[in-house]
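Posting for a labmate who doesn't have an account.
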Amino acid sequence: MVRYRVRGGNPLRGTAFIQGAKNAVLPMIGAALLTAQGRTVLRNVPIIEDVRRAVELATAVGAGVELHESERTLVIDASRLHSPVLPAQIARRFRGSVLFTPALLHRLGEAIVEGVGGCNLGSRNLDFHYLGYKRLGAVVDEGETVIHVKASGLTGATLYLDTPSHTGTENLIMAAALAKGTTVIENAALEPEVLDVIDMLTKMGARISGGGTGFITVEGVEELHAVEHTVMPDRLDAGVFAMAAAITQGEVSLVGTGLDLGVVRYKLEQMGVDFARQGAVLQVRCDRPLRPINIITDTYPGFATDLQSPMMTVAALADGTSYIHERIFDGRFALAAELNKMGANVEVAGSRAIVRGATPLTGAHVTAHDLRSGIALVLAGLAAKGETVIDSGYLIDRGHAHLAPRMRALGADITQEISEP
């Protein structure tokens, strides 16, 4: 049981070190299981709960995994995989469990998925993953509580994704990497994290072309080998710290190699936030009232749905009316009711939200409904008068490493409380 306490009113100032990307490291752990020889080394690994669950899953199927937290390094030896079962008690706790399926298919001939978890975000099924496996020659048996995927060998095929899901793209690339022949994936995801996973797989010996074009070709190879790879910085973590500087009228330097916030930066600039690139450091400053904003979430390179919830918090403090259209996940607006408890004025109608600001926020007892609404409530607490208590803090820890100490280093008054259930 994890709870966060945040006492607002302090402008954040200093340097924030951005963690490795959650959405890159999880498929990389799955990719490390594709090779039967050698030990894979992943660096700049975020020490988050989803990584811990991934380590538990990898261990459950027979991999030897060493997580060196102080060095933010994972060492994975997948030479002795022995179980095709992704046990429900682990798998249901995070959605990334599905990324282990390709390795189990290639190494053991089957994968038994007892549960797939993650955040409750409405219609977010995994049908296109399994339809892709079928097109590659697998047999998929979907029960009420278990999904059983079997394949004596996969064969290349032409695949089309109804939506350019980064998880779906990564999963099918991994499945195709060791399949016989050529696989073409149309309408593939364009995210930088997908390109980072492709970079790692290419180092491992995979033959992949077209990354970043939406049209990926994979020429199957007979085997892959272990490599060392450094995980890219987390764009979402960086976006949150940029917003924290904005809503507290502070100044924060973001440190992360090759950091690029893309459209999120442009939207924050429209609201009055200043950005300055100083070599490898991105400086974020806000010393003026925030202006309202219009947002439509979309797949990359559009505005990331994962940052829509934190931006709703920023919009609540802007001087005017903001409009948000959520086009990706229909469960993203659970945050609105929690923000309204704190004094915000957010009205939701279907996939659209109207945020009327600026409304002074007051600390309250609120609940994180998912990872992104949880971190949005932390931001609200930083700007609110008094104390904000956020329950279900485990969800926040799924995606942000050492959040409380990193924010305290910037002057925030925030503590994490952990108790037995």
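Reply:
Got it, the structure tokens are right above this. The domain at 2-19+233-418 is CATH 3.65.10.10 (UDP-n-acetylglucosamine1-carboxyvinyl-transferase; Chain).
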